[in-house]
Amino acid sequence: MNNQKVFDIDTLIEIIDHREELRETHPLHYLFWESTLRCNLDCLHCGSDCVKDNSSKAREIDVKLIKKELIDIAKHYNPKEITFAIIGGEPLVRDDILEVGAFANELGYNWGITTNGMLLSDEKIAQLKEANLKTISVSLDGLEPHHDQLRNHKGSHKIVTKGLKRLMADRFFKAFDIICCVNGLNIDHLGEFVKELVELEIPQVRFTPIFSHGRASENNHLMLTDAQVRQLLEFIADYRKNGDSRIVVTLSEEGYYGAEFECQIRDGLHYCGSGVQIGTILHDGGVMGCPSASRKFVVGNIKESSFVDIWNKKFYQYRNGKKELFSSQCAGCEDWILCEGGGFHLLDQKNYDGTMCQYAKVKG
Amino acid sequence: MDRREFLKKFVALSSASLIINGCTQPQNPSTNKRFEDIVPNTTKNIPPKKVEESMPVAVYGPPSYFEGSQNE
Questions:
Q1: Which of A117, A179, A219, A272 falls between 20 and 30 A from A85, CA-CA?
Q2: Which helix (DSSP H) or strand (DSSP E) does residue A31 occupy?
Q3: CA–CA separation, A278 and A289 (whole Å)
């Protein structure tokens, strides 16, 4: 496989101008619904604030409310051009997500889930198929000992692998990938891990470097050193050039990594569409850009206003106000025009003021 | 440094990096034919200048699936 490319200057200028146009028009193409904070696992590296108990259940919005919003959004945007992503916590702990998914499908949305794979039984997969699920990501964080340790659940790798075999046997969905959180435990075993995925006939893996958020921030031994971040990028770049053509290896939209890597680790350049093309309805009805961003950037609640109204009137800081938000660190950085601060979720997390610049880790 | 100057430098550094890593031919993103029906090919039916941001990639969300564009 050899899928690196260099953009010419005119193409880059077109991309930058197009991004400017997107800030103005903010066409919604990706809608998250954080259906629950409840989860059936208690992972060491979890980047969200999910909980294993039912303490957050009372705050979860009723499915009637999310259905009402889906109907309203479909009046303003073409649902066929929107991916409706149901996430958690673990979304499959809620049986009624299937009802919402099927409803979204009827309206024309392309719906999908991100799951930890622990509940992918034959019955559940049949239900997802029946509801016309279009896209799915399953989390698998490396080889068995690393995954089980990170997931804090011995035997979890075996359970997920069985679920993956079931999914690969009946590819009713249109898009699929594995999301792997790269951390201090699995960074030296990525080649073996990808080999295992090829044997499972997995078509794509998206590596996402661990970042200091949620419980991950309490497990410093899992954090990657700057040298390990570079190791990850070099692994991806090399695999995309020389690796097995049966699998696509890519990096998540974690941030911008400069000219040395940007053309070698994904199909396109880094771009964070949070609040521009990507919106989220949280478990309690809160509205924000993407669910990984700091909750200080919640800009409204569907219990008080419609999502569309909030999307049209309250997202200034995600769009033209973004430069101002990042100004303390990014002012004067010549890479801003392509980086734009990196992922919005890297800004002002609980244990970190300012943005966690990814480029600084590999700049040398 | 103005925008064009920065981009000129970016392109030069990107090209140099690819050459160092053994890829001297700038190419389009590959499509894995065996799996092209399952891995979204963002270059398939979208005008080239729109490719980069027409299918947003959400950090921890499932891959974008944009039925409208694929049916155009």
A1: A219
A2: strand A30-34
A3: 6
CB contact under 8 A, B22 and A338: no
**Which of helix, strand or coil describes residue A101?**
helix
Which positions 169-188 of A are in contact with B (Cβ < 8 Å)? 171, 173-177, 179
Which residue type, as a one-letter code, is found at position A161?
T
* Token representation of residue A105: 């499908």
What is the pTM (predicted TM-score) of this model? Answer: 0.91
Q: Given the structure tokens 């990014």, which residue do they identify?
A: A330
Give me the phi and psi of A233, to 5 degrees please: -65, -40
Helix and strand totals (H; E) in chain B: 3, 0
Of A173, A248, A253, the CB nearest to B57: A253
ipTM of the complex: 0.92
Binding-face residues of B in 31-50 toward A, CB within 8 A: 32, 34-35, 37-40, 42-43, 48-50
Averages of pLDDT over runs of 10 residues in chain B (72 residues) are 90 86 48 35 36 65 75 31
Task: Concatenate the DSSP letters of all residues of A272-312 into one string.
Answer: --BTTTEEEE-TTSEEES-TTS-GGG--EETTTS-HHHHHH
Segment A244-257, tens digit of pLDDT: 999 999 999 889 99
**DSSP H or E stretch at residue A182:** strand A175-182
Token look-up 């990814």 returns: A358
Q: CA A351 to CA A306: how far, in whole Å?
A: 32
Instruction: Name A243's Cβ contacts closer than 8 Å, sequence gap at least 6.
Output: A1, A194, A249
Calculate how close chain B gets to A125, using CA atoms only, in Å: 16
Which SS3 state, helix, strand or coil, does residue A32 take?
strand
What distance in Å separates residue B71's CA from the closest CA in chain A?
Answer: 10
**Contact indicator for A41, A156 with CB cutoff of 8 Å:** yes
